Amino acid sequence: MLKKVSVLLAVLLIAGFAIPFAGAQEATTVLRYPINPDPEHLNPFTATTIAIGTINRNIYEGLARLDLNTMEPIPNLAESWEVSEDHLTYTFHLRHGVLFHDVEGVTYENDDREFKADDWIWAAHIVNSADETISQHPEIMEGVVGWEAHRNGEAETISGITKIDDYTFQVQLERPNRLFFTVGAGTVPVVSPEAYEQLGEDFANHPVGTGPYMFVEWQRDDHITLRANPEYWRQDVPSVDEIRFINVPDANTQLLMYRNNELDFLFGFPTGQLAAVREEFADEYHERPGLNTRYFGFKWDQGFFAEHPLVRQAFAHAFNRDLVWNDLMEGARLPGNLGVLPPAMPASTPAITYPYDLERAAELLAEAGFPNGEGIPPIQLYVFASARDELSLPVFQEDLRQLGVELEIVAEDSSTYWDHIGEDDVIFFLSGWSAGVADPSDTLNYLFMNARDDTYYDNPAVNVLLERAMEEFDAGVREQLYLAAHNLIMLDCPVIVSAYSKVMWLQKPWVENFVPSGGGTYTAPLWNVTINTELLP
Q1: Which of 276, 335, 394, 522 satisfies CB 3.0 to 4.6 Å to 325 for a cystine?
Q2: How many helices (H) and strands (E) does the chain have?
Q3: DSSP 448-477
Q4: CA distance 337 to 343
């Protein structure tokens, strides 16, 4: 799971609305991909959840893409680039002939849909907005010369971005940033300015990019259809004519549909059936270590837990991760017995951890002034609806009851949950983060830097360490910086680590070239997927 935040959804899209495009052909191959839940919207500037990213990564592109093996940037919409010796100036040369999707209702001056430097520069300024309804990712522009003056309204443009010609521009940084292409300005999504401006609020549900697939239809809580872009700049992809993202909220229903060959993948395994499903579909089962961390988050800025750090630590000792994930959940995840970083990442073994220990938890409660839980008010733990039956919850509830703490589980629909947990009345909640690459920055910078996450955790010492690590190109020195930050975070205990993910899925034998990274199944480039029609039933 990524995180929260959605914008107002257009009435037509809630009812279901399709955007046709020029030259549409009847699909001959269809990839049937289960999703749960529906994305909140499809605006890349305010996207913060896996549900949104699953769809948008097929529609929108950036200047570069990451090699999933080396995690190095490789040319994409930028055909090439140069970086100055001091790592402060990036000069980009755009690919010629890249076209925005041809969508009815969106017009272009002189019918010119070609992506050019002005389009990227426009998107960079949208991203840098201080208005959260416009951008949820202004942090990626931080460090570009002039970002602060523009965001504060003191300048109309970001002075560090310079257009040289229609296909060339420069980005100048205040300081080196080794994460330029992973969490920095190099990740600005390429969006059609005309679509954004002409569609208005409807743009959140009418995505228009340059990617291999084009948006066709969204029937709320049923399906989203994308179709191959006939004008895509890469001639060899995509291979599949159409992707149908089918909303299947119930894991048992998803399994039944997979058995009946109505789905090409199974991503959710019904509780208590994982071992049986793995045995039943042994030849179709795939697994690899993941980069998701699931956690219970405490509000850091206000409320009961913000005032009682020892209580946070006591709660962390009161969660039996091994029982939950190894036994009750049949190995669905790896117990979160280390820190906030998945084990595949550098700096993932902090000195400070919170092993299951009810005696130590009781001692900490007494030290905090709450012996036997006396004086602790009833605590509400908010969880998203799809996790309401997860066996970790009653286990945690019972262990806290033994400590004299009453824990109420409040399940909310995902359509409201990610907004709600950011509000003041929620002080304890279930969440998670999926990194896209095996770099500590892709977890720590989003969850624990400058109060960006819903915990609102903000430790100046941690911020300094993470900022230094962004500028450090020596891997050994960088790992020590991340380890120091990791230990401070664990001492502060803004979250209780529950588990680390395994990327597990079933895949029909006729589906080929589906290759996800440790970030999750949603990271698989669907434009590379092929369907062997000779194997279809």
Answers
A1: 335
A2: 16, 20
A3: SSTT-STT----HHHHHHHHHHHH---HHH
A4: 10
The first and second tokens of residue 125, run together, are 């300024």
408-445: per-residue pLDDT in tens? 999 999 879 999 999 999 999 999 998 878 899 989 99
Q: Please name the residues in contact with 430: beta carbons below 8 A apart, sequence gap of 6 or more.
A: 294, 295, 296, 297, 381, 382, 383, 384, 387, 498
What tens digit of pLDDT does each residue of 73-124 get? 999 999 999 999 999 999 999 999 999 999 999 999 999 999 999 999 999 9
User: Alpha-carbon distance 218 to 275, whole Å?
Assistant: 34
Q: What are phi and psi for residue 99, nearest 5 degrees? A: -110, 140
Phi-psi bin for 278: left (phi > 0), alpha (psi -120 to 50), beta? alpha
Cα gap 134→131, rounded to integer Å: 5
Strands (DSSP E) contained in 301-454 are 333-335, 379-384, 407-412, 428-434
Tell me the backbone φ, ψ of residue 521, rounded to 5 degrees.
-60, -30
Q: Alpha-carbon distance 126 to 137, whole Å?
A: 10
Q: What distance in Å separates the CA atoms of residue 131 and residue 267, rounded to the nearest whole number?
A: 35
Could you give all domains of the chain from N- to C-terminal order, each with its CATH number? 11-245 (3.40.190.10), 290-501 (3.10.105.10)
The pLDDT value recorded for residue 434 is 86
Q: What are the residues facing 74 on neighbouring strands? A: 65
Query: Kind of pairing, strands 407-412 and 379-384?
Result: parallel
Q: Please give the C-alpha separations between residue 270 and each of 15, 275, 387, in angstroms, as whole numbers.
A: 30, 10, 11
What percentage of the chain reaches a pLDDT higher than 70?
95
491: tokens are: 């001492």
Amino acid at site 392: S
Contact 73, 64 (CB under 8 A): yes
DSSP, residue by residue, 261-275 = TS-SEE----TT-HH
pLDDT tens string 465-477: 999 998 898 999 9
